[in-house]
C-alpha cells in the first residue's frame, strides 16, 4: 500500500510516499522549513505544499511534535501554543495524525532495531526536543513525552536535546554525558530491554554513543531521520 507520510518537526517538515509493505520511500523526500510562527494555518499550508508536490490524493499520515488524541492536539511544547485544541486530522484533510516520536517508534518496531523484540523497548528521538515512544511486547503506549521528565529542576530536553549541543557548542563527549544522565533516569523508571536512539543526530551515533554507558543496550535507529515519515504512513495504513 502506498501512503504519503509527513513528519512535522520544529525546524523542518518532511514528506514522501511510502510503501508500507516494505517500509521504504518510493520517491525522494521533500523538505520545507517549518513556518515562523509555527501556527496551524502556516503548517497546514506546508502540508498542502508537500501533497501538491507529489500530486497526492490518497491516504496521508502526519506526525505532530506533541500529544495527539483522536486527531486533536493536546500539547505543543516546541511549536506555537495556538495548536492546543486544534483538530489536526481535519485541518490536514482527513489525515491520520499522531505524535512524532510515536510514529518513529512504530517504524523502528516494524522495520528497524525493534523488529521482533519482546519486552519493553524505548525509542527516543533527539532533535529540537526529546521525543519518546514506549512499547511493551510490541504494543505502543502513546504520548509518553518523556523529554519533559524533570532533571535539575527543568525539562530534560532543555538539557539533553540535540539542539542544546549546537546552541551551547558542546563537544560530542560533553553532550554524551548529558544524554547518559537522561538515559539513566529513564532506565531507572522503565527497565527497558532496549533503547533505540533516533532523530537526525542518530546518523552521527558513532560520535557520541561510545561515551554512553548503561546496563541497557543502546543502539542507533536503523531508519534514522526517515522513521517519522515511515511511521506516519504505517499509522495511516493501519487505520
How does the SSE layout of this entry go?
Layout: E1 2-8, E2 12-19, E3 24-25, E4 30-33, H1 40-53, E5 60-64, E6 68-69, E7 72-73, H2 88-91, E8 96-99, H3 100-111, E9 120-126, E10 130-136, E11 139-141, E12 150-151, E13 154-155, H4 157-160, H5 162-167, H6 172-190, E14 194-198, E15 218-220, H7 227-238
Helix pairs in contact: 3-7
Protein name: Polyphosphate glucokinase
GO molecular function: kinase activity
Pfam family, one: ROK
Which blocks of ≥5 consecutive residues have pLDDT under 50?
none
Span from first to last CA?
A: 12 Å
CATH topology of the largest domain: Nucleotidyltransferase, domain 5
CATH class of the largest domain: Alpha Beta
Give me the Rg, rounded: 17 Å
Strand content: 25-35%
How many runs of DSSP E, i.e. beta strands?
Answer: 15
Order of helices and strands: EEEEHEEEHEHEEEEEHHHEEH
Q: What does the main sheet amount to?
A: 6 strands, mixed
Number of domains: 2
CATH superfamily of the largest domain: ATPase, nucleotide binding domain
What structural category do the secondary elements indicate?
alpha/beta
Query: Can you tell me the overall shape?
Result: globular
Number of helices: 7
Helix content: 25-40%
- In CATH, the architecture of the largest domain is 2-Layer Sandwich
Task: Summarize model confidence as the mean pLDDT.
Answer: 97
Amino acid at each position: 500500500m502506498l501512503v504519503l507520510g509527513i513528519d512535522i518537526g520544529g525546524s523542518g517538515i518532511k514528506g514522501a510516499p511510502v510503501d508500507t509493505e516494505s517500509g521504504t520511500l518510493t520517491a525522494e523526500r521533500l523538505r520545507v522549513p517549518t513556518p515562523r510562527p509555527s501556527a496551524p494555518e502556516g503548517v497546514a499550508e506546508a502540508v498542502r505544499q508537500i501533497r501538491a508536490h507529489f500530486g497526492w490524493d490518497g491516504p496521508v499520515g502526519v506526525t505532530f511534535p506533541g500529544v495527539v488524541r483522536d486527531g486533536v492536539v493536546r500539547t505543543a511544547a516546541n511549536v506555537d501554543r495556538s495548536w492546543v485544541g486544534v483538530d489536526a486530522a481535519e485541518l490536514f484533510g482527513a489525515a491520520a495524525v499522531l505524535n512524532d516520536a510515536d510514529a518513529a517508534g512504530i517504524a523502528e518496531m516494524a522495520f528497524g532495531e525493534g523488529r521482533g523484540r519482546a519486552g519493553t523497548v524505548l525509542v527516543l528521538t533527539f532533535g529540537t526536543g526529546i521525543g519518546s515512544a514506549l512499547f511493551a511486547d510490541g504494543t505502543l503506549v502513546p504520548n509518553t513525552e518523556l523529554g519533559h521528565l524533570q532533571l535539575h529542576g527543568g525539562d530534560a530536553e532543555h538539557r539533553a536535546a540535540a539542539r542544546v549541543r549546537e546552541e551551547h557548542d558542546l563537544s560530542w563527549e560533553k553532550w554524551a554525558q548529558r544524554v547518559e544522565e537522561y538515559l539513566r533516569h529513564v532506565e531507572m523508571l522503565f527497565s527497558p530491554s532496549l533503547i533505540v536512539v533516533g532523530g537526525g543526530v542518530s546518523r552521527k551515533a558513532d560520535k557520541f554513543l561510545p561515551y554512553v554507558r548503561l546496563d541497557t543496550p543502546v543502539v542507533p535507529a536503523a531508519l534514522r531521520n526517515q522513521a517519522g515519515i515511515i511511521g506516519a504512513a504505517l499509522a495511516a495504513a493501519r487505520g
